[in-house]
## 1
Amino acid sequence: MPMVHCILQPLQHDLREEMNIVNSNTDKCKQLRELHDRLIGELRVLKEGVQDEEREGIANPLEMVNIIKSLQKTLSTVDIELHKCQDTH
């Protein structure tokens, strides 16, 4: 599990940085779309990894499940902000 943590920790840091960048209004909607696409991709990869581990009989580590939940929550927030972009155009 430490290897997964080493891989995901920089990703979570990058995502936090991207959310901070989004605060500037200039390219907010474009950045939100890019972040949305990245989150979808990362979630797909993580879920596939969990499914592979389940097929191999490896129990779901709580940490991985929590990371997926956290990314899903972030995705939900990005979705809400993207709807605001659509409402303003």
## 2
Amino acid sequence: MPRTLSNYERAVLAHVVLDPDEWWDWANDHHEDPESAIAEKVTRWQGNYDAAKTAKGEAYQTRAQAESEALAEKQAQQGES
């Protein structure tokens, strides 16, 4: 059973993937060294996440939140047509 992601790892992953826990499960199933995979992913995206979180503050959205909102807006626009 894979270890639990830290809050920071989960937050950085949520910036770039829709479901951090699903990604972590996938990494554990498909990578010989899942710890290296998570370390590389977090290292690659942490600066981007930190900057977005700082810039947007309370308005910051994870990727899943942003995609959900964009889909709702698109559906609302289509309903107005």
## 3
Amino acid sequence: MFVLIVILGLIAAGVFLTGLVRGTKGAFSEIADKENAQPEGQGHYASTAFVAVVLSAITIAAAGIAPIFIYLGPILAIGTALGVGLAFLTEERRSVR
């Protein structure tokens, strides 16, 4: 199980770092074109935040039930890093007029 978590962690770290670099470059290019930048839209993240809170609570509760569930914490953290990296990679670029 440890080896699997390490491999998944390395994959998630690679996706996260790739997305972070892309997102940072995009942010700097938007700052450079600040005069023509479009206003940011409203995000709809309440449902994903709710799911994250519920999964965290389940993880904490499950760790008290059986020792095997202690692995849920790292898996949840890896999933979060992977999700953030994918969000950077799939974000829509605003068109600059």
